Amino acid sequence: MRPIVLLLSALLSALWLVALPAQAQAPVRDFDSIVESGVLRVAVYQDFPPYSFQQDGQPRGVDVELAQALAEGLGLKLELIWAPPGEKLDDDLRDYIWRGHYLRPHELADVMLRVPYDRDFSYMSNEFGELVNELVVMFGPYQRERWQVAYDRRRLEAVPSVAVFQQHPIGVEVDSVPSFYLSSVFEGMLSRQTHHFRNPQAAFAGMKQGEVDAVMALRGEIDWHLKQAADSQLALAENAYPKMGKQVWDIGMAVHQSNRQLAYALEEQLEELILAGKVKRLYGHYGLRYELPDLYQEAD
Predict the structure, then answer these.
(1) Longest C-alpha distance within the chain, in Å?
(2) Half-sphere exposure of 214 toward its Cβ, with a 13 Å CA cutoff?
(3) Which residue ranges form the domains of the chain, and what is each CATH number?
(4) Is the pLDDT higher at 98 or at 283?
(5) pTM of the full structure
(6) Best exposed site among 128, 149, 214, 284 by fewest CB in 10 Å?
């Protein structure tokens, strides 16, 4: 009898593990339920200045203030859901938009900010030909993003091209696009001078201490850290990034595919904020340059 008991026990355990994601799946609130609750739940990335972070215990950042403006435009109170970034965006969309995480079963957001607005990504397929993000609608582009280098003029006269980083050390965030790019471009000729840090803030600290002569990160992050440093010797480079692939992209929002009514309502509020110049002023408040997403550049 013992082998049968062990087999039944193993089967029950396996069934329990399979059932965990279904039990953890949080319900998606439709637009009427959101309005009735009086609260809009918005997922923003945790510890991601200047977009979403906490300072002195208070939420701050461009995405936080944009979320507040969108919620107010719908006559709702904002509830922030702080999202630690996963290994891939697909993981974040799964955990906060369409299924939920088994450790946070009640933290499904109504909408998530800082999601790439990109048709190729939206319709990306897995190895079986299935849409990876079929349960998600990506919409509402509100900012154009790009990569940027800042450098210290005390140690580096100019950055005409990334080739200067054969002789000058540059700091990047570990496991980031700049990390992979600088480590591989020109057959790896820049890899020896590419120094890895925990985040852009640490990379800027390294530049201040003379460990590196430059830093590469998102333009918004570079702008933010330059403002915080308040050092006239730190400058912005205007070089290009050969063989990098996609260097400019739009940032938008995401909702569950069943919640298009919410997407339409948010798009209406967002368009008003962009056309009135309020989003640009919001970015300026944090010392960031603002570039209209492609949708509004065509209409401009």
Answers:
(1) 80
(2) 31
(3) 24-144+248-299 (3.40.190.10), 146-236 (3.40.190.10)
(4) 283
(5) 0.85
(6) 128
